[in-house]
Amino acid sequence: MKHQIVIVGGGAAGVAVASSLRKRRKGLDIAIIEPKEKHYYQPGWTMVGGGVFDFDFTVRSEESVIPRGVKWIKKAATAFDPDRNAVVVDGGERVEYDYLIAAPGLKLNFAAIPGLEETLGKNGVTSNYQPGMAPYTWSLVQGLESGTAIFTQAPLPFKCPGAPQKAMYLAADHWRRKKRLDKIKVTFCTAAPAMFGVAAFVPALLEYVKKYGAEANFGSVLVAVDGPGKKATFREKDASGAEREIVRAFDMLHVCPPLVAADVVRESPIADAAGFIDVDQETLRHKKYGNIFGLGDACSTPNSKTAAAARKQAPIVAENLLAVMDGGQPDYVYDGYASCPLTVERGKIVFAEFGYGGKLLPTFPKWLNDNTKATWFGWLMKAEILPWVYWELMLAGREWLARPKRREAKA
Q1: How many domains are there within the chain?
Q2: pLDDT tens digits along 355-403
Q3: Is 117 in the same domain as 230?
Q4: Beta-bridge partners for 243
Q5: Which CATH number covers residue 183?
Q6: Are residues 23 and 98 in the same domain?
Q7: Is residue 391 part of a domain?
Q8: Active-site residue 189, yes or no?
Q9: What pLDDT is recorded for position 409?
Q10: pLDDT, tens digit, for every residue of 10-25?
Q11: Catalytic residue among 189, 256, 299, 340
Q12: pLDDT higher than 60, residue 411
């Protein structure tokens, strides 16, 4: 079996780039390799865990989002063979290509934390990252009258740098509204040295940490979970820099798991030393194989891994691949744009937008929305507009506010 363009991954990035390509050239022979029957709007799971969205709102069939004219190979990719321009799928079949786009996403590695996998979904242990588990998060939030709620954040990389604390804010806001917050100890344990990686957004977030009376522990990594005993073990450093383990009791534990590139990527020639797809951070073209491009969470690019990043990357990959196909050079560049709408309370969001190096990249003028502050406009975007943008624009190749930009000519 051979196709002109093969896309590995039918998630947000894979479907978006397929649509962007079809929009530009309808006659392209494109195939998507994706085994899953369901397509998820993952940015909505924080809202499900906070009681804002129903889980069903975040699910559609994969068939419904794959663009017309694109072949769906309903199998999992098991190996990349870039030297022979082929991808191996379940059953050993080889799918050959002229051009490859790799967008397989990341793998949730719950198994890396002893005791976590077997207690997930019970004993008060949950994770909005796991498909279908956000409703359990909401049931725990609703049911907790008093006690201790711990929210963890793993070391990078993981999807959406704000998601772990967003779960905390929405839960604490619910408890505040129900007048329970004074009876619940809210603890945020993050492997990071600060509340957020871009300093401009930290003051607004710390205001809410203070508002909810939350305890923030930095440099704190979850290393073990005892579900039946309701205890979580963290590795931290003391004032002298020596590592120590601290055991914390909990009534509710929301976990951000470690995430790694999928095995099929890590064990392949297209991966870098860290196991991610080795692409140029601007053109998204593979550094070794000129007929391969990558986008989405599995790439080596040093941007925050969000659907908003994939939305900006898809048109860039489409333009650059077509340029290479036509014998030219890729001259459209990705600036590291990512968006992380930080849901600090029901009705307000810090609509963080930034690029490489933490450069602020706001979409809207400051008079309309100051994205370093908690605003109702940010909530409107997250709750009402962005789901529509995802389903109806991004996945359909309609590039509203996502037009690719060429590399600026040097003077």
Answers
A1: 2
A2: 999 999 999 999 999 999 999 999 999 999 999 999 999 999 999 888 8
A3: yes
A4: 237
A5: 3.50.50.60
A6: yes
A7: no
A8: no
A9: 65
A10: 999 999 999 999 999 9
A11: 340
A12: no
Q: How far is CA 352 from the centre of its chain?
A: 14
pLDDT tens for 121-163 read: 999 999 999 999 999 999 999 999 999 999 999 988 777 778 9
What residues make up the domain containing 72? 2-105+262-334
The answer to whether residue 398 sits within a structural domain is no
**Taking the mean position of all CA atoms in its chain, how far away is CA 16?**
15
Give the C-alpha separation, 130 to 121, whole Å. 9
Reply yes or no on whether 299 is catalytic: no
| Active-site choice (160, 189, 256, 299) | 160
Looking at 235, 259, 283, which one is the last position of a domain? 259
Please state, in angstroms and rounded to a whole number, the distance separating the CA atoms of residues 397 and 27: 15
- Which of residues 205, 231, 259 is at a domain's end? 259
Distance CA 62, CA 11 (A): 9
Determine the Cα–Cα distance for residues 145 and 260; give it in Å rounded to an integer: 35
Say whether both 80 and 112 belong to one domain. no
What is the phi/psi pair of residue 164, to 5°? -60, -40
* Nearest CA among 249, 176, 253 for reference residue 213: 176
Of 6, 21, 4, 71, nearest to 397 (Cα)?
21
- The amino acid that residue 365 corresponds to is P
Assess whether 99 and 147 both reside in one domain: no
